[in-house]
Amino acid sequence: MRVAPCAVVAIAMPALGGCYYLQAIGGQLEVMRKREPIPEVLEDPTVPDATRERLGMVLEARRFAVDELGLPDNDSYRTYADLERDYVVWNVFAAPEFSLEPKTWCFPIVGCVAYRGYFDEAAARRHAAGLEARGYDVYVGGVPAYSTLGRFDDPVLNTMMRWTDADLVATVFHELAHQRLYVKGDTGFNEAFATAVAEIGLERWLTSRGQAEALAVYRRRIAFRKALVAMAEAAKVELEALYADGIDVGEMRRRKRALLDDLSRRAVEEAARRGFEDAGWLRAPLNNARLVSVGVYRSHLGAFRALYQQCDSDLSCFYAGAEELADLPAEQRRQRLDAFADAAPSSQSGTH
Known about the structure:
- By secondary structure, the chain is mainly α.
- 58% of the residues lie in helices and 9% in strands.
- It has helices at residues 5-12, 19-33, 38-42, 49-67, 121-133, 165-180, 187-208, 212-243, 249-274, 288-298, 301-310, 315-326, 330-343; strands at 36-37, 79-81, 89-96, 105-107, 111-113, 116-118, 136-143, 156-157.
- Strand 4 and strand 5 (111-113) form a beta hairpin.
- It is globular.
């Protein structure tokens, strides 16, 4: 997930003034300064055994990513950096009070994206407060990992180490997928492609290691995520109809709140029914900004899953098809993705 635009822009715009770019440069330099080669960390007796064990697993997954998934063979995720905080970046999402069209920000290299990233949480929240004062729904989300699209040698971060083994490995695959293919200005395409690669890669990784139980748990979580996304998409349809209704603002605000609260309630119930602790990104309190952030990351996942099935699970074919889509004009690309998703069997389709 999870390209932090400020991190990529940092090196591209050193001549630009302004606090935003200065914090981006400073944040990226901090990450680079704290990197240590993982083999050296593994030899350090002061490093906890659990950390060394998981970093060893990351190196195995890194080799698997190259040999079995065709992902870039570079120095990304071969170093480790302890930032001594819970997140590396905080992303700000915003949408108008009565619209599900996300606010976008445009940067060199990455193009226009539906979030703005900060290495400092306080700065992110100040920017969010300014947007909220202008009438936007806002959401600030901590990001444990990001990709600089191969422009730097991205490290494994301490912010990633509290995840399960499956999530840690999947994130390495996800971020390397961004380095394999990235379309400037198309966040939905980029995130869905990387998520599809991560899910495909993790299934292959767990299968290759004979971890049947972990694979079963992982598949249950994927099914749960798809169920949540289906609920969110249905709620979006209702909200869009409400926002187009032209009713009194006060009444529209009341109905909006009722719809969002109902969505969170049903998500909590679905989590409990499936044996999960919480409703993830649909937990309360919801607003338009949180809802559109769901779509940013899963908008075309079903299409990429369908492409993979069409390729008989051959990754070379899958990557070639994704690259063909990437070369299309934006609207034609969206239409092709929609066509893939519409043609997919219902058991395979899903939006992210």
